[in-house]
């Protein structure tokens, strides 16, 4: 059995322990402050006797530390140290998520049905929809709870007391239940280390959200991760202010003007391309008419094929690309079954699909090889 020292001492950064089991790449200690991957949260990082701990997993009542090709033996006494910045960041995030989920549960009755706290991303899933405006309100409430510096307590209630408590839990837990109480905001079963007061979370920021399995998935960050995200946004905004001679109030207007201008220019370019293509098509004739262009948007490509089909007695096609990177193709015929040609193209390494009247796809061949293949 491994004593989970991190539960009682979440702020402890180093420890002494004895190796009680091991194999070539793993060791089990009589006690540890390394939190394993559990409850949706990634494992702690750190070192044992200077050897990097690459993963931490739990198996029953044992905590397994992965250390590739370690030199340890059963009975060895070792010194371990966690990456405290990484641990504290996870504590900030997990405690902030509890406040967020607690508020959602109280306001809407939704359950937290999925939680992921990884190295680069934190998400929480709820079994019901939440509007954009409601999410903004919840974000404000969470940050108010942080500023109030409420006490956070982790404890194991006895079975009789547990039966009287109204607490959140994603699953039924057998045995002792560890609860995390955030004063006035949430009471939830949880195995992870938490900060001792909400003020240590610093801040919470919703990054984005998406519909998910009939409910919603929310991407959020807390603490130093939220600060780093906001700082990066600030740096990007400052760059845009300089490029566009804009400020916070006028930035969106400047970008919208650029977007509208870009749409107009794209429309003009499409018209020029279409007119030039029509001129080229007017001079085309033959059994199979194939055009090869370096660049062309798919709608114009399809329009050109439809025009060529009226002039070709066999195949009409437009290939976009070059001999080096391959060609995106659209082919059609007024008289022949295009699926037979598709099979031929596929047999020469092409990809695609379509109907008996028109096919499209991609082929990595030289222009002359394509002409020979089709003719």
From TrEMBL:
SUPFAM superfamilies noted in UniProt: ThrRS/AlaRS common domain, Translation proteins
Listed GO CC annotations: cytoplasm
Coiled coil regions, renumbered to chain: 248-275
Cofactors named for this entry: Zn(2+)
Record keyword Transmembrane present: no
Gene Ontology terms: biological process: alanyl-tRNA aminoacylation
Subcellular location: Cytoplasm
Residue ranges of domain Alanyl-transfer RNA synthetases family profile in the record: 1-217
The keyword Chaperone appears for this protein: no
Molecular function GO labels: alanine-tRNA ligase activity; aminoacyl-tRNA deacylase activity; ATP binding; metal ion binding; nucleic acid binding
Key words of the record: Aminoacyl-tRNA synthetase, Coiled coil, Ligase, Metal-binding, Zinc
Protein name: Alanyl-tRNA synthetase
Species, as recorded: Kandleria vitulina
């Amino acid at each position: 059995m491994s004593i989970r020292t991190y539960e009682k001492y979440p702020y402890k950064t180093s420890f002494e322990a004895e190796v009680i089991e091991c194999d070539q790449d793993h060791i089990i200690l009589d006690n540890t402050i390394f939190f394993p991957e559990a409850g949706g949260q990634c494992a702690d990082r750190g070192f044992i006797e200077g050897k990097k701990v690459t993963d931490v997993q739990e198996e029953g009542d044992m905590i397994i530390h992965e250390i590739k090709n370690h030199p340890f033996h059963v009975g060895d006494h070792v010194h371990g140290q966690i990456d405290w910045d990484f641990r504290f960041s996870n504590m900030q995030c997990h405690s902030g998520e509890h406040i967020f989920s607690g508020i959602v549960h109280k306001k809407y009755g939704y359950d937290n049905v999925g939680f992921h706290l990884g190295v680069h991303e934190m998400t929480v899933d709820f079994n019901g929809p939440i509007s954009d405006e409601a999410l903004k309100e919840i974000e404000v409430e969470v940050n108010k709870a942080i500023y109030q510096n409420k006490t956070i307590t982790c404890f194991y209630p006895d079975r009789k007391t547990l039966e009287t408590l109204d607490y959140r839990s994603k699953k039924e837990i057998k045995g002792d239940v560890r609860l995390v109480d955030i004063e006035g905001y949430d009471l939830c079963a949880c195995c992870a280390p938490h900060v001792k007061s909400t003020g240590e979370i610093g801040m919470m920021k919703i990054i984005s959200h998406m519909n998910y399995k009939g409910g919603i998935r929310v991407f959020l960050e807390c603490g130093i991760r939220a600060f780093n995200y906001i700082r990066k946004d600030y740096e990007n905004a400052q760059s845009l202010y300089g490029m566009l001679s804009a400020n916070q109030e006028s930035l969106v207007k400047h970008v919208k003007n650029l977007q509208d201008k870009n749409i107009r220019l794209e429309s003009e370019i499409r018209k020029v391309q279409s007119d030039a293509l029509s001129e080229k098509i007017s001079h085309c004739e033959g059994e199979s008419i194939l055009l090869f262009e370096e660049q062309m948007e798919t709608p114009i490509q399809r329009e050109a094929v439809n025009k060529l089909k009226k002039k070709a007695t066999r195949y009409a096609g437009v290939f976009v690309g070059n001999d080096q990177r391959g060609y995106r193709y659209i082919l059609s015929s007024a008289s022949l079954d295009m699926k037979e040609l598709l099979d031929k193209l596929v047999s020469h390494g092409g990809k695609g699909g379509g109907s008996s009247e028109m096919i499209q796809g991609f082929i990595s061949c030289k222009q002359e090889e394509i002409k020979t293949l089709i003719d």
